[in-house]
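Retro notes (design track)

What went well: tokenization of the new backbones is finally stable.
What didn't: we kept losing track of which sequence belonged to which structure.
Fix going forward: every design gets posted as structure first, then sequence, in one message. First example under the new rule, 179 residues:
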């Protein structure tokens, strides 16, 4: 699926993101969600030079060092990927992470909107399912070496808990400030 697909539900999602941004609401998008956020905020979404599928290192930028979600992450981390498209950064957004195959792996627009191209949310069961579901006709055929769903899963789960835990804390702080 692409953020550029001419589907009514994707058009609605892009408008929901724009509306949320205009209201100053917090938004977090993963993979297609990051691409939809980028598009909603005026950036171009297009095919990446290569499909990035499987475990690959993500490097964090200097901007990540002071970012509420990524602070403390300075060394490259092996994170799961499954995408064939990428995006330009929305105007004024800060790049937070990149990989050799895809320069825009994470960004923050303002202080309330985040896009993560990589997949911190996956479990080994999800990865195995994606590979099984895709093996006959899709992107998995292009992978040059088998994907081991467990290879970096323990560290990835810790990163997910850290990053998504921080996201939830930001939401809680936002809710407390609004009440």
């Amino acid at each position: 699926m692409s953020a550029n697909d001419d589907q009514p539900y994707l058009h609605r999602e892009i408008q929901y993101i724009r509306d949320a941004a205009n209201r100053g609401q917090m938004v977090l998008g993963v993979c297609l969600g990051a691409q939809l956020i980028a598009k909603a905020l005026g950036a171009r979404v297009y095919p990446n030079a290569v499909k990035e599928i499987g475990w690959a290192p993500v490097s964090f930028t200097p901007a990540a060092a002071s970012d509420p979600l990524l602070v403390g992450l300075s060394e490259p981390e092996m994170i799961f990927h499954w995408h064939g498209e990428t995006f330009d950064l929305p105007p004024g957004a800060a790049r937070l992470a990149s990989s050799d195959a895809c320069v825009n792996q994470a960004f923050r627009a303002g202080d309330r909107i985040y896009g993560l191209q990589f997949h911190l949310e996956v479990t080994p069961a999800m990865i195995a399912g994606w590979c099984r579901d895709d093996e006959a006709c899709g992107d998995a055929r292009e992978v040059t070496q088998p994907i081991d769903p467990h290879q970096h899963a323990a560290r990835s789960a810790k990163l997910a808990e850290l990053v998504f835990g921080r996201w939830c804390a930001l939401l809680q702080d936002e809710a407390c400030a609004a009440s």
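Added context from the reviewer: The radius of gyration is 16 Å.
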